Automatic annotation (TrEMBL):
This is Asparaginase. GO terms for molecular function: asparaginase activity. Coiled coil: none annotated. The active site is at residue 19. InterPro entries: Asp/glu_Ase-like_sf (IPR036152), Asparaginase/glutaminase-like (IPR006034), L-asparaginase_N (IPR027474), L-asparaginase_N_sf (IPR037152). It holds the Pfam family Asparaginase. SUPFAM superfamilies: Glutaminase/Asparaginase. Substrate binds at residues 63, 92-93. Residues 10-167 form the L-asparaginase N-terminal domain. It comes from Seminavis robusta.
Length: 175
């Protein structure tokens, strides 16, 4: 099977941090998780996809530390990218906020014709019981099937437009 290199078929994966990308501490005596290479790289290596892709890092932050300036930089990175399909891995606490920011930004600039899907994980990809593989897989399907110009959130087997995405803060489930 040949892999298309047309940028309309290529998917851009953008790392922003969050639980999906957290890794065990590399320093001795470290107790907090650290950010390392994008979890997407390991997941795609296992998948061996038949589509072309690029992986980029916008920033590596816990989502509670993401600012509107970070969101603006993310929007700029996406806008400048040649790919029309984009998956953003993001922390779950403010993922919906970032999706809504990108939804508003898409009307103002080069994001108009981009299909953007945000996803993440409740447990780091490094954990054997992580939800990262399922969530990334759902994002890959969604970004290929959604109409151009869509901004979606996909978590827990649910895909919703940014403006309709909600989260039950008691259970942590996205709806």
């Amino acid at each position: 099977m040949s892999i298309s290199t047309d940028d309309n078929d290529k998917i851009l994966f953008v790392q922003t941090g969050g639980t999906i990308d957290k890794d065990y501490p590399r320093s001795t005596g470290g107790y907090a998780f650290e950010f390392g290479e994008p979890a997407t790289i390991r997941l795609l290596d296992r998948l061996q996809p038949s589509f072309a892709y690029t992986v980029a890092t916008a920033f590596q932050k816990d989502s509670l530390e993401v600012t509107d300036q970070d969101r603006e930089e993310l929007a700029t990175l996406i806008g400048k990218a040649s790919e029309s399909r984009v998956i953003v891995t993001h922390g779950t606490d403010t993922m919906i906020d970032t999706a809504k920011y990108l939804q508003l930004a898409k009307n103002e600039r080069l994001l108009k014709h981009k299909t953007i899907v945000l996803t993440g994980a409740m447990r780091p990809e490094r954990f054997s019981n992580s939800d990262a593989p399922l969530n990334l897989g759902a994002a890959i399907a969604a970004v290929q099937l959604a109409p151009a110009g869509s901004v979606l959130v996909t978590m827990h087997g649910v895909v919703r437009p940014a403006q309709e995405a909600t989260r039950d803060m008691e259970t942590g489930q996205f709806k």
